[in-house]
Amino acid sequence: MNPVLRSSLWLAFFGLVLAAWWMMYAMAMQMDVDLLGRPGDMGEAMRAMDPRMPMYMPMANFGPLFVMWGAMMAAMMLPTMVPTLRSYEDLMISANGTRAGWLGVLLGYFSIWLCFAALIAAVQLALLFAGVIDMLGIARSRWTAATLLLAVGFFQFTRTKEICHGVCHSPMMYFIGNWRTGFAGGLRMGLGLGIYCALCCWGFMALGFAGGVMNLAWMGLATLFMVVEKLPQIGHHVTKPMGVILILGACVVAGWPLISGG
User: Rounded to an integer, what distance in angstroms lies between the CA atom of residue 44 and that of residue 115?
Assistant: First the structure.
C-alpha cells in the first residue's frame, strides 16, 4: 500500500468534509440564520415570503435546495463513513481489496446519499407549498415538530432500525458477506452500505424540519451522534436512549405553552 497515496486520499476526504461544512455555514449566513437556526431580521422577512410569488426564490426551487441538501449530506454523512473505509483498508491487507475498490465504496455510499438529497429536497418543496414549513425549512406548527420528534424517536426501537444499524455498526461483517473485488465491486458494496445507512439515519435528516434545516448546531450534534452510533464499543448502547430522548423532546415541544406558562 503506497503510504503517500493513502495519506493523500484521506486528506482529500477530510478536505471535502470541511468544504461541505464551510458551504453550509456560508449558506446559513447568507440566509441570516445563526448557528442555532434562529433567523435575524432578514431571515424573518424571508420566512414570511409566499413561495408562490413570481420572483425567483432559491429556497422555493428544486435546484438550489438539492445543492443545499447535497452539501448537508457531505457534511453530515461522510464523517460517519470513516469506520467503514477503515474496515475496507484492513481488508486491503488481509484480503484482495484495492485502493480502486476503496474509492468505489466511497462513491457508491455517497451516491445513495445524493439520491436521498434529491428526495428530501422534493419533500421540502412539497411541505413548503403545502404550508407545513416556511421558506427557511422551519415547521410552522409545534405539532409538526413534535410529530417528527415522536416518529423518529419511536423509529429507534423498530426492527428496521436494528437491522440497518447492525450493518452500519459492523461494516466488516457486511464486507465479508458481500465481498466484491475491484472498483466495480467496491461501488456495488458502497451502494448497498449507503442504502442501509440511509434507512438507518433518515430520521435525523428529517428532524431538520423540526428546528430548521439550516440549524448548524443540530447538524453538528446529529453528526456526532451518528458517528458514535457506529463505534464498535458503544454503538449498540446509544440507539434506544436516543429514542427516549427524542420522545421526551416531542412531549416538551407539544406541551411547551404549559411548561413555559405562555
Answer: 31
Average pLDDT (173-191) is: 92
Q: 66: which strand partners? A: none
Looking at residue 219, what is its pLDDT?
87
Burial of 250 (0-12, 13-18, 19+ CB in 10 A): buried
Nearest partner of 257 among 143, 165, 156, 161, judged by Cα: 143
User: Residue 218 pLDDT > 70, yes or no?
Assistant: yes
In whole angstroms, give the CA distance from residue 102 to residue 167: 18
Where b means 16+ CB within 10 Å and e means fewer, 196-220 reads bbbbbbbbbbbbbbbbbbbbbebbe
Please answer whether residues 67 and 172 qualify as being in contact, where contact means their C-beta atoms are separated by less than 8 angstroms.
no
- Cell digits for 58? 432559491
C-alpha cell at 210: 423540526
262 pLDDT tier (thresholds 50, 70, 90): low
Q: Residue 1 — very low, low, confident or very high, per pLDDT cuts 50/70/90?
A: low
d(CA 110, CA 224): 18
- What is the model's pLDDT at position 2? 67
CA nearest neighbour of 77 among 196, 234, 253: 196
Strand, helix or coil for residue 133: strand
User: What was the pLDDT predicted at 210?
Assistant: 84
**Are the beta carbons of 212 and 138 closer than 8 angstroms?**
yes
Question: Model pTM?
Answer: 0.88
The cell for 128 is 413548503
167 in Cβ contact with 196 (< 8 Å): yes
CA dist., res. 13 & res. 204, Å (int): 23
